[in-house]
Amino acid sequence: MSETSPTQSWLNRTVLGVGLTSLFSDWSHETATAVLPAFLAAIGAGPAWLGAIEGIADGLSSFAKLASGHFTDRLKRRKPLAVLGYAVTALATASFAFATHAYQVRSRMRGVRSPVRKALLAADVPPSAYGRAFGFERLMDTMGAIAGPLTALWLLEQTGHSYKKVFLWTLLPGLVAVASFWLLVRERPFSSRPKQSFFVGLRSLPIRFRQLLIGVGIFGAGDFSHSMLILYASRMLAPSYGLARAASLAVALYTLHNAFYAGSAYFSGWLSDRVPQRKVVLASGYALAGFTAILLCTGTHSLWVLTVIFAMAGLYVGTEEALEDSLTAEIVPKEQHGMAFGTLAAVNAVGDFLSSLLVGSLWSAFSVQTAFAASAVLFFAGAALILRLRTPS
Q1: What is the pLDDT of residue 364?
Q2: Which DSSP state fits 192?
Q3: Selection from 15, 289, 34, 308 nearest residue 144 by Cα
Q4: pLDDT value at position 51?
Q5: Which of 53, 56, 73, 208 is deepest in the core (most CB within 10 A)?
């Protein structure tokens, strides 16, 4: 892996701009998400509507990432598409304030900007700094995810539980995100791809990247939603602490999880810039997920063991996200970065759906041990496949 030029700092205006954009955009999104269930209940909509809204949002986001990735590689300028995506998301989120029926709460198209953002980030840092750059972006995004729910709680108290005012407030960080991207992110010239069909574009991606996707997909099939950790902790702590106290402790543990997630995203990226091969760091993160799943199989009722589990879960998810992006940027040519990042996001989205379905079904039909044992097997299998991946050294 080549060394970073001593005259070129990896923390340039583009990295800072992308980081600030992720922070403020997720701050806006998570503020709205925190009050959305209560808002839907207030207008007479139940859990089915929440599931439908979030499910449709995730599905549309996956397709949008694929389409955006394919389309952006054919553009001479990628930046306007990302700016438009952030602006539409900010306005759409704030528009929830005017909804009076559940069907008016439409999905936010957050997927369009993701491949573009990552492609622009990779284009403005040297390959030897991909880990730090993508780790910093994940760090900032997670800080926004922590700030969002806290802001929602504060706003509800200050506004007398006015959901309309909370949704309207999200426009502020949303527009700051748009301005950060527009004013700070630079667009480096690159050789745009000739017009070709979507499937031809997929087939033209490097074989090594397709091998990476297999490892990511196997791991993702076991990578259950971490909201299940909250449910797990609530159930395991209830006999000792009571239902209400157990629920509060589970939320506190999840906050700890997010703090470790934020820190590990940058640290693992930093580490990957200093080892001969990034794949070792990613495989280590996947293996850590396997050990986390093994601890979950114990069905522990110990608060201290649960604290370790939540910390480990935060560590591995931060490593996973930062390193999957870094490896993708490293093994795929810059002119195909849009398609590559879009495809990676789509594979992860399918994995999120399958894993939560798998773990939830096994947990309900058999036991918690069976559910997380299946995850552990998939986690270790993904780690083994990543270690076998041939990457630049």
Answers
A1: 80
A2: P
A3: 34
A4: 45
A5: 73
